[in-house]
UniProtKB/TrEMBL annotation:
<dbReference type="InterPro" id="IPR011856">
    <property type="entry name" value="tRNA_endonuc-like_dom_sf"/>
</dbReference>
<dbReference type="InterPro" id="IPR011335">
    <property type="entry name" value="Restrct_endonuc-II-like"/>
</dbReference>
<dbReference type="Pfam" id="PF08814">
    <property type="entry name" value="XisH"/>
</dbReference>
<protein>
    <submittedName>
        <fullName>Fatty-acid oxidation protein subunit alpha</fullName>
    </submittedName>
</protein>
<dbReference type="GO" id="GO:0003676">
    <property type="term" value="F:nucleic acid binding"/>
</dbReference>
<dbReference type="InterPro" id="IPR014919">
    <property type="entry name" value="XisH"/>
</dbReference>
Length: 142
């Protein structure tokens, strides 16, 4: 099993604060002969619909020198996880969790915006210092 990301506990705590129930830590996907370990699985009851929203969250810290290299690694991992999820548990939505300072850089990079839009990468923006979710984004950063 891979090591936990630097901000794993911060994101976990932020989700709990936001009313999510952590159901898996990690969320293991077994697809044929390959095992994937997404950082977290969580659920939240949507009162108005009386349904459960289920998510899988891959946490990234983006602490390396090159954000483009980090994005390359994270997006490849995200795409593999999303494919496996679509086959195994299609009602669970995958998100890539990124720190708020990385999000600010993403907002100013047209290349990063286009990659996120093109590959339809959903993101959660978190503040690791106060352990809170700042935003949930589908595919556009505007």
């Amino acid at each position: 099993m891979p090591a936990k990301d630097t901000f794993h506990h911060a994101v976990r705590n932020a989700l709990i604060k936001a009313g999510w129930t952590i159901t898996h830590d990690p969320f293991t996907l077994e697809f044929e002969d390959v095992n994937f370990y997404v950082d977290l699985g969580a659920e939240k009851v949507i009162a108005a619909q009386k349904e459960r929203e289920k998510v899988a969250i891959e946490i990234k810290s983006f602490l390396r020198d090159s954000i483009v290299t980090e994005l390359h690694l994270a997006s490849g991992q995200y795409l593999n996880y999303r494919f496996a999820l679509s086959e195994i548990e299609p009602d669970r939505t995958l998100y890539l969790a990124i720190p708020n300072d990385t999000y600010e850089v993403f907002c100013h990079s047209r290349f990063v915006q286009r990659i996120l839009e093109h590959y339809q990468i959903k993101i959660i923006v978190y503040n690791p210092e106060i352990e809170e979710i700042v935003a949930w984004q589908s595919t556009t950063l505007n």
